[in-house]
Amino acid sequence: MAKMIFEELGGTYIQQGDYFLPCLSLPAEKETKPIGVWGQRHLRYLKQHRKVLYTNLLTSGKLNSYLVDIDEQAEDTFLRLVKQIAEREGLTEQLKAENSMLWVQTMNSIRNRAMDIVNEEIIYN
Length: 125
Description:
It contains six helices and two strands, in the order αββααααα. It has helices at 5-8, 37-49, 51-60, 63-88, 93-98, 100-123; strands spanning 13-16, 19-22. It starts with a helix and ends with a helix. The model has no long low-confidence stretch (mean pLDDT 89). InterPro entries: TnpV.
């Protein structure tokens, strides 16, 4: 019997009942760092809206490293934006000591705006 293309490339088959199925496995990733909240959000976005990109990353073994990079980039951007906006709006430690409720309210507003920017620019793009 002539060899199939899969066998010529070094692949093997396993018999399941009456069928021969190819033995397929995903390539192992080098690093397995944990994926943070930003990476999880991007993963959910990829699964729902960018299925081809998700499948390509998954089958090439690069999904985890891609998500770790996205997570780090988003976290760095978020922290930088919060710091820049707080400085621009004059949010100081003195205000925190004098009127803590106003400081918390302003900081929550800043964090929400920074989160919206990161979501729009990095996570859902």
